[in-house]
Design goal:
single chain; 227 residues; alpha+beta; Arc Repressor Mutant, subunit A; Chorismate lyase; 2 domains; six-stranded antiparallel beta sheet; elongated; transcription
Length: 227
């Protein structure tokens, strides 16, 4: 194995084992040269490639740091965020901000309802106590009549709905957006920080079951999928 690959694996192992934390300063190139007994250009290549892969971030005049963690979610497969977080060995928690009937005309149109109300929920999902998703969801009461009676701190809306009525089809769009002040505050984001916003509608039979907007801080989250 080339020496630069050995150094890359060493750095990744120290990060994955928790020895080097996100945002923390790692040993300098000079220190790594001494530790591995290699040329400086070998160490430089390893750190450069890890920076390209967004494992590390390099700051001129300050050093090389472990990049902030970006949590990943699947786009093409609709999955329960609590399951994704658990699969990473982390703790999921949810805070319900809104759970009520709504006559919002845009929501009624998106759900194909001639008259209201729709059901509306707003929930902040966190991973290890850090908010990573703001969920703004409208639900068709014909499909899920007991939606407002659920405790979504115990079971996510996604898990509840899929358990009762499997999804037949879905459509979605992804945007890069700046959130409004309300969403930004609940995601604990800096002013001007962008979000990844996913809008999705799903069907159960011939009925639109739900229309949802999912906001994710771009600095802590990315969306991925395979076909």
């Amino acid at each position: 194995m080339p020496a630069y690959e050995q150094i890359k694996r060493y750095v990744i192992r120290r990060i994955s084992e928790g020895d080097w934390k996100p945002g923390g300063l790692i040993p300098s190139e000079t220190e790594l040269v001494k530790e591995f007994g290699v040329a400086r250009m070998t160490v430089s290549r390893a750190l450069r490639e890890l920076t390209t892969d967004r494992v590390l971030t390099r700051v001129q005049g300050s050093g090389t740091f472990v990049a902030p963690q970006r949590y990943e979610s699947t786009v093409l497969e609709i999955r329960n965020i609590a399951d994704e977080i658990a699969a990473r060995g982390h703790r999921h928690s949810a805070r319900v901000l809104t759970l009520e009937p709504s006559d919002d005309p845009h929501a009624l149109e998106a759900l194909g309802l001639a008259g209201g109300p729709a059901f509306h929920s707003c929930i902040v999902h966190s991973e290890e106590g850090e908010p990573i998703q703001y969920e703004d969801r409208y639900v068709n009461p014909k499909v899920f009549p007991d939606y407002l009676q659920q405790d979504f701190t115990v079971e996510t809306p996604n898990h509840y709905m899929v358990r009762l009525a499997p999804i037949q089809r879905a459509e979605f769009r992804i945007y890069a957006q700046k959130p409004d002040a309300y969403v930004r505050r609940h995601l604990m984001m800096d002013i001007g920080e962008p979000c990844l916003q996913l809008w999705r509608r799903t069907w159960v039979g011939d009925d639109v079951a739900t229309s949802v907007q999912l906001w994710h801080p771009a600095s802590r989250f990315h969306l991925a999928g395979n076909v």
